[in-house]
Amino acid sequence: MERLLAPAGGLFIGMAAAITYAFIALTVTTLDRFRPGSTSKDDTQNELKILLFALALMGLSLAAGGATELVATIAGGFKGGGDAIKHILAPIVVGAGVLAAILLAFLPRTNSGTARGPEAIALLTVGLYFGGSAIFGAYELINGLVMSAAWAETSSGLATLVVHGAIAILAINRLGAVAGWTAPVRPPPPQYPPQGGGYPPQGGGGYPPQGGGYPPQGGGGYPPQGGGYPPQGGGYPPQGGGYPPQGGGGYPPR
């Protein structure tokens, strides 16, 4: 595993990945041109984009090899001192520089934003290789912890898991964006009636409040005292008024 983490190992892996990618991409896009309605049929920049993505794979592999060895050195307690760190800087700087130049300077001049076949195959290659390497790193880490192996061996698995796992996640997310995947929509939670909402609240909602819906005492639907019904001495003939008073009026006096 340590030979795979070395910068030279990253360069050789990058060359192998680039050559494999270029062969597969050329084969797939060539066959796709015979399909009716093919997007790569009239793409005159197809081979150029495959070359650029192949060089980007070489730069990525070189930088990933240096970054993995750097994390392993840090996790292992800086064995080798400053010389080990200086030995790692060259592949990181060169690999990151190549990758940045391809992605920022050359690819924007092509039609890679509309014809994304070579990019999709490159992302597939990156996700497959680095994802599988991250799984192997996780296995090496867990196996070293369980078997109580030396931390120098276990730290290499940790470094591979961290660096290669991060690259694989980025490649998967980018490939998903190119493919147009969407996030799953969660169903809305059931709507339970909130307190004071589904049922009429006490004292002010479905049921008339006290002193509101029903006629209030003393002045509303029912005649208040002294209002709707004739007051004493009012609606009915008052004494000495409606009925002929005694001694004078309706009946002749005796």
For the CA atoms, what is the radius of gyration? Answer: 44 Å
Total helices: the number is 6
Number of DSSP strands?
0
Based on Cα principal axes, name the global outline: globular
Q: Looking at the chains present, what oligomeric state does this protein adopt?
A: single chain
Cα(first) to Cα(last) distance is 142 Å
Order of helices and strands: HHHHHH
Please outline the major beta sheet.
none
How much helix, percentage-wise, in residues? 55-70%
- Helix/strand-derived category reads mainly alpha
Low-confidence stretches: 1-5
What is the mean pLDDT?
79
Percentage of β-strand residues:
under 5%
Topology:
Layout: H1 2-5, H2 7-32, H3 46-75, H4 81-106, H5 117-146, H6 151-179
Compact description:
The protein has 254 residues and is mainly alpha-helical.
Describe the model.
There is one protein chain. This protein has 254 residues and is an all-alpha fold. Helix content is 57%, strand content 0%. The chain has helices spanning 2-5, 7-32, 46-75, 81-106, 117-146, 151-179. It is globular and about 60 Å long. The N and C termini lie far apart (142 Å). Residues 1-5 have low confidence and may be disordered.
Key features?
mainly alpha, 6 helices
